[in-house]
Amino acid sequence: MEQLIIEGEHPLYGEVNINGAKNAAVAIIPAAVMANGKCIIDNLPGIEDISKLVDILTKLGAKCSFDGIHRLIIDSSKIDKYKAYYDSVREIRASYYLLGSLLGRFGRAEVALPGGCNFGDRPIDQHIKGFEAMGAEVYIEHGMVKAYAPNLKGATIYLDVVSVGATINIMLAAVLAKGVTTIENAAKEPHVVDTANFLNMMGAKIKGAGTDVIRIVGVSNLEGVNYTIIPDQIEAGTYMIAGAITGGDIKINNIIPKHMEPLTAKLLEMNCKITEGDDYIRVIAPKELQSTNVKTMVYPGFPTDLQPQMTALMCASNGTSVITENVWESRFQYVNELKRLGGNINVEGRVAVIEGKAKLTGAEVKATDLRAGAALVILGLAAQGKTIINNAKFIDRGYEKIEDKLSSLGAKIIRVKK
Ligand code: UD1
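Structure tokens for the assembled complex are given below, as produced in the milestone run.
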């Protein structure tokens, strides 16, 4: 097991570069399965989820090679399988995007029910509803989702809930279907737009990505392309919060400031000073952070994937803060670990009430999922003394070289193998 060990109370100063977006990368790599030719994907984050996805594609018959950590060349021309089994997909939720892309390419797909972070029930009924509307037969058998559609046809699909996964998955299947597909009540997250941009560059005809109605005119062929992934909104937000909790002053480079607006607004309310340029944000922490209230929402609302990190920040602010989690039904399971570090948090259903100015002291804790792990790192940076975070591997699923980046900002953090 790997641990991160942090000696807290060292303010962060300096600059940090943000990697490409995990949630865009994990959709774009499965999308490359549909190309007739080589795709070169740049600005990939060097994280576990990417290497796992590449292993899955290789097992399907794709030729994948890395040119450095951040550039991947995928040649899908020899893919001859349409099944991805449990042993490959269990730890990576985004493997469900292979349903859409393999269905588009082969008219059939079999993918084990996805794994990923556990924060309550994570249904895929809206994905299935979309595929069925397009003429697919979909059923679940022996833990596999099996979809067959020799003649995938465009359809109008209204999503009952705004789902990033369902929006992207239906878009993937629709690009090679016959006719027009319309997705209503679609998700508008930056990674939905990035995936649509990638597909359009390959020759797809998608309009409206980034709004709640996406229209896709099916085409018969997609070409290989060279594409650069957008910066990671959640990694950037995590460092902004880390800077704020330590009383530091950091510049976060290689980002799209517009994507950070929901967080920037909250940090301003908490009294941080923020300046922005075209591709950076500087966060200057105040002497005393003020409390605030947050409700997680679909984009452009406050992202649920920054909720645990924000909870950590609220533990150190002055006054009482309230966070309401509107996306996932049980995404507060991690708070017991924050409490070990002194966090004063009470959870009632989807609402957490955080009494600020807690006396934060280091302790041994464990990461229970990716973003919960990031929240522990953040609180550990502010806590007095030593914090030991077990299960650091969870954090590696979404953060490239987190200890190196934080160390370069002045944090005292090391990784050890136990
Ligand atoms: C993606 C992100 C995840 C983030 C989430 C919400 C990836 C790989 N993961 O997950 O980090 O937390 O968006 O921003 O991009 N739902 C249904 N039926 C469905 C699908 C979803 O009821 O078929 C519900 C879910 O239970 C949840 C909500 O819709 O309450 C949002 O889920 P969704 O946007 O699909 O999340 P993911 O795509 O799995």
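Residues 6 and 413 are 4 Å apart (CA to CA). The longest strand covers residues 2-7. Further analysis is deferred to the final report.
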